[in-house]
Amino acid sequence: MLLQGRVCTSFPAPLAFEQEALSPDCIFCSWTRTSQHFQVDGSIVFAMDEQPVRRPYRGSCHCGATQYIVFLSFPHAQPPARVPRADARTHQDFYRCNCTTCHKAGIFHMRLASAPEDFLLLKPLDPYNDLGDYTVYEKDLHFLFCKSCGMRCFTFMGKGEVADVDLPALGIGAGTDSGVEEGETRGKDGSTAAAAAAGEKNMTKVWRPKKDGWVEGKKFGSYLSVNGYSVDAGQDGFDLREITEKKWVGYCDWLELHSEGSQGTRHDRPWEGGAY
């Protein structure tokens, strides 16, 4: 995003600044993120960082028996370096873990800012029964997988619920197999004709984490991690290469060989036993 204003000689270019630091001589709209500016034909041109935009993305297993919508915000804002252990997670995070479970299962963790609001499972609607379930150690996390193709789309802990959701109102258009063709609307009796005659909204049944009582974190009994490798390719704004190249991915150390415990998280290089 570019903004142009009058020449301001009080700041050398390029320079990172906040809105409060600008000279009154500069023409500038309301902005709070850091930026850089440079001179073009006697004018100051401001090159702004983009504001994060929340968008829906489709995901699925390889055979299509599992389909979901996940909401992600890009450009990604790095989470705090260390969230107090007593606090619930409330930020989007990307990471890879070097524990043998996550590594051998091929999981690219995407933790969401709000699991009940950012994840909609289109099918199946009863994941605990219709998907395969692998648990280890404390048997608390459910590494769910498609019984047909074996793909692991998400890992879950906690309670879920089936709800009727107006997908178009959430910005979700065609391209999702929810049992309703593009342009169709289902009425209360399940018929598309009745819905069209009544002018009803396009309501789709989905499964999602239950918002009531949900506090994100294993210690709180609620956990959702979406596997980034299961997000469908070719969607604007989602690129796993970019996520890695911009060092948005944290590399966690939970390898069972380390009896001394985790060495923490870093963004430059995976720990022993891990991978980019």
UniProtKB/TrEMBL annotation:
The keyword Zinc applies. It comes from the Eukaryota. Keywords: Metal-binding, Zinc. Transmembrane segments: none annotated. PROSITE patterns: CENP_V_GFA. Residues 57-189 form the CENP-V/GFA domain. One of its GO terms (molecular function) is carbon-sulfur lyase activity. Gene3D superfamilies: 2.170.150.70. The keyword Zinc applies. InterPro entries: CENP-V-like (IPR052355), CENP-V/GFA (IPR006913), Mss4-like_sf (IPR011057). Belongs to the Gfa family. This is CENP-V/GFA domain-containing protein. The lineage of its organism: Eukaryota, Fungi, Dikarya, Ascomycota, Pezizomycotina.
